[in-house]
Amino acid sequence: MSGHFNSLLKSLGDKKARIGIVGLGYVGLPIVLRFCEEGFEVKGFDVDPEKIKHLKKGKSYIKHIPSEKIALFTRGPRPRFSATCDMSELKGMDAVIICVPTPLSDKREPDLSYVENTGKEIAKHLRPGQLISLESTTYPGTTDELLLPMFKARGLKAGEDFFLVFSPEREDPGRVDFSIKTTPKVVGGITKKCARLGSALYSNIVDRVVEVSSTRVAEMTKLLENIYRSVNIALVNELKMLCDRMGMDIWEVIEASKTKPFGFQAFYPGPGLGGHCIPIDPFYLTWKAREFDFSTRFIELAGEINSNMPYYVINRVMEALNDRGKSMKGAKVLVLGVAYKKNVDDLRESPSLELIRILKEKGASVKFNDPFIPLAVSHRKSFRMRSVPLKGLKDYDCVLIATDHTCYDYRKIVSESALVVDTRNATAGIKSRKIVKT
Q1: Are 343 and 372 a contacting pair, CB within 8 Å?
Q2: CATH no. for residue 297?
Q3: d(CA 194, CA 183)
Q4: Greatest pairwise CA separation for the chain in angstroms
Q5: Which has fewest Cβ within 10 Å: 64, 143, 318, 373?
Q6: With 0-12 CB in 10 A as exposed, 13-18 as middle and 19+ as buried, what is 419?
């Protein structure tokens, strides 16, 4: 075994290794704190100076991460965590974890510019004995096709001079029943030594590491997890539309099906897909599959169904307004919730933004309320709106529940509204002719 391997393995085991995290968002910041909790010295890297400014003050910019937790590790005589925009400091890290975004382009193709730019910075400062881990979700082959050549160009050998792994993030913002520590971590390496060091790195912060045979298997694992969810959500969305037409409540059907103790897992319909994974990951695989002259028809059909759900919801809103002698044009609509899931401040790929866009396109006057997002900004969708107070509900022609935050008093909302269109079954158990479920 190489000297670099043994030295790094020992420093990881002794918790003396210096950990660098590139990308301090919903994925990177929780990992920073987890390593700090285990006694590691951690440096965070981000191109956004505002994030660095907040962190240096011990303040959080993510709702479910309390500022007190950040301050705990950034203050005191020997702080464990510091943050910087200076990428030259990567050279001082023993292990570097990449947690940057991997969005889709306007043409629904992978945008790996963040990964590529980060790789170039790491390559510029790469030194012998470093471990690099990519966590950003991507297509199988990214680690060995994109990052590996950059690092090898420095004249260093993978598995001997430097070590490269892929370990997909499994962060679920706002979740309380599982944490980073209790969620198994999949690790695949360019070589066996790389994989072993990757396992040694993550075994410090998780209860179980699952080592796989290659970076490509690890990359495909993350895609399978989210494509599985995408396809099943598409199935239940399609059945929701059928049940609406047949005069049945899909939510009641799902609850009944859940009573079977085997062979069934409940998935729930909604106004569309949101978040950083499920709306995006399937397209990474369909794009890569074309290189192998393979059509992923099942995945693409699921994507088509899920992408059309906002239009279906708006049609249901139009029907509900028409039944009450109202036109969509000029109707006052209040959208409840713009976060992509309940109880978080995460706007990424939220279907609420599409709902608002379509409503405005059809002539409605639209406002939104979200206690977690006072100002909703999406540069990719050219979207910017402020949350309005949750009052004067009787003045709206329709209240559209897009995100089922638990802090909402749904009984009060129904009683004070003229019409409530519920896309999340948030009004379950409330009997009122004002409610239209969709």
Answers
A1: yes
A2: 3.40.50.720
A3: 21
A4: 78
A5: 64
A6: buried
User: 307 CB contacts (<8 Å, ≥6 apart)?
Assistant: 272, 273
CB 175 within 8 A of CB 200: no
Task: For 355-384, give the secondary structure using H, E and C.
Answer: HHHHHHHCCCEEEEECCCCCEEEECCCCEE
Measured CA to CA in angstroms, residue 22 lies from 97, 170, 267 at distances of 6, 17, 34
Of 325, 318, 338, 438, nearest to 383 by C-alpha is 338
Nearest to 394 by CA among 415, 417, 410, 414: 417
pLDDT digits (tens, 9 = 90+) for 324-351: 999 999 999 999 999 999 999 989 889 9
Strand partners, 165: 133, 189
How would residue 61 be classed by pLDDT, with cut points 50, 70 and 90? Answer: very high
Same domain, 177 and 272: no
Which of 165, 199, 219 terminates a domain? The answer is 219
Backbone φ and ψ of 280, nearest 5°:
-110, -45
Q: Classify residue 95 by its DSSP letter.
A: E
Say what the pLDDT of residue 77 is: 76
Are 112 and 152 contained in the same domain?
A: yes
The answer to the question of residue 237 being in a domain is no
- Which positions are catalytic? 277
Range of the domain at 366: 247-437
Q: How many domains does the chain have?
A: 2
Q: Considering the domain boundaries, does residue 174 fall inside one?
A: yes
Q: Let me know: does 186 contact 167? Beta carbons within 8 Å.
A: yes
One domain for residues 215 and 252: no
Smallest CA-to-CA distance from 320 within 239, 423, 415 is with 423
Asked whether residue 208 falls in the same domain as residue 348, the answer is: no
Tell me, yes or no, whether 160 and 270 share the same domain: no
pTM over 0.70: yes
